[in-house]
TrEMBL record:
Organism expressing this protein natively: Noctiluca scintillans
Keywords of this entry: 4Fe-4S, DNA damage, DNA repair, Glycosidase, Hydrolase, Iron, Iron-sulfur, Metal-binding
Enzyme category, top tier: hydrolase
GO biological process: base-excision repair; mismatch repair
Family matches, as SUPFAM superfamilies: DNA-glycosylase, Nudix
Protein name according to UniProt: Adenine DNA glycosylase
GO molecular function per UniProt: 4 iron, 4 sulfur cluster binding; 8-oxo-7,8-dihydroguanine DNA N-glycosylase activity; adenine/guanine mispair binding; metal ion binding; oxidized purine DNA binding; purine-specific mismatch base pair DNA N-glycosylase activity
Segments crossing the lipid bilayer: none
Domain HhH-GPD: start-end pairs: 1-114
Cofactor(s) required, per the database record: [4Fe-4S] cluster
Reaction equation(s) it catalyzes: Hydrolyzes free adenine bases from 7,8-dihydro-8-oxoguanine:adenine mismatched double-stranded DNA, leaving an apurinic site
Length: 254
């Protein structure tokens, strides 16, 4: 689907868990305080603050990546976005408008999303430019660019995983699928059976890989006959995720 990989599977699952928790513990009504809200599965500080301020008009802070970027430039805070989280939450709590907290929070997030953007901030039309420490540093020649705030975190290299994927299709063209664990990457989704190969497994024979796949399948179901697998003579399939890359070699049951 077009939204695969965006985390919506997990969000839908947590939404369902949260709804059940609300019915069981709060009679279906959203609580009006931050601690009670954060006891709901899937609700953290950001969601709790958004609900309280936007839905109920309560004075509560909201901090997302956009807000961190705005504050880091407004105050010229040294450090990466991840290291500034606690500071930005303190700032947000201090600055949130007591009369219009929802409007304030939404305006702050929108400022970061549309004006104070990561790569091309529109400082010429920023409503808080006169108060922006990063802009002042650049204007007086003491700083290189507003975009140096927040500092860039060093990019982590993605973990490379090599997989042997079993294609088991019966005479009625039904394919064998297994369900992934309930947590972690692609939690609870269905996939073709697979085993992870070590980096040096690329030269393993079909017999060795077949035995590993058979061992995996025996732990899944006892209904299958003993299968032999042949590696398909096609390029491996590459799937790229945010923190991992999967290189899948396909093995057909014969």
């Amino acid at each position: 689907v077009s939204w695969a990989g965006l985390g919506y599977y997990g969000r839908a699952r947590r939404l369902h868990e949260g709804a059940k928790y609300l019915v069981e513990h709060h009679g279906g009504d959203l609580p009006r305080d931050v601690d009670a809200l954060q006891s709901i599965p899937g609700v953290g500080p950001y969601t709790a603050g958004a609900i309280l301020s936007i839905a109920f008009g309560r004075r509560a802070a909201v901090v997302d990546g956009n807000v961190v970027r705005v504050f880091s430039r407004l105050k010229a805070l040294p450090g990466s976005a991840s290291s500034l989280s606690r500071q930005c939450w303190s700032l947000a709590h201090a600055l949130v408008d007591p009369d219009e907290p929802g409007s304030f929070n939404q305006a702050l997030m929108e400022l970061g999303a549309t004006v104070c953007t990561p790569l091309a901030p529109a400082c010429d039309r920023c409503p808080v430019r006169s108060s922006c420490r990063a802009f002042a540093l650049v204007s007086t020649g003491q700083g290189q660019a507003v975009t140096t705030f927040p500092e860039k975190s060093p990019k982590k290299s993605r973990r490379l995983r090599t997989l042997a994927v079993a294609l088991v299709v019966d005479a009625e063209h039904r394919a064998l699928l297994v369900r992934r664990p309930p947590s972690g990457l692609l939690a609870g989704q269905w996939e073709f059976p697979c085993v992870e190969l070590a980096d040096d497994d690329g030269g393993r024979s079909d017999d060795e890989v077949s035995e590993r796949l058979r061992t995996f399948l025996r732990n899944v179901t006892a209904r299958l006959p003993t299968l032999q697998f042949a590696k398909l003579v096609i390029p491996p399939v590459l799937h790229v995720f945010s923190h991992e890359e999967h290189v899948s070699h396909l093995y057909q049951a014969v």
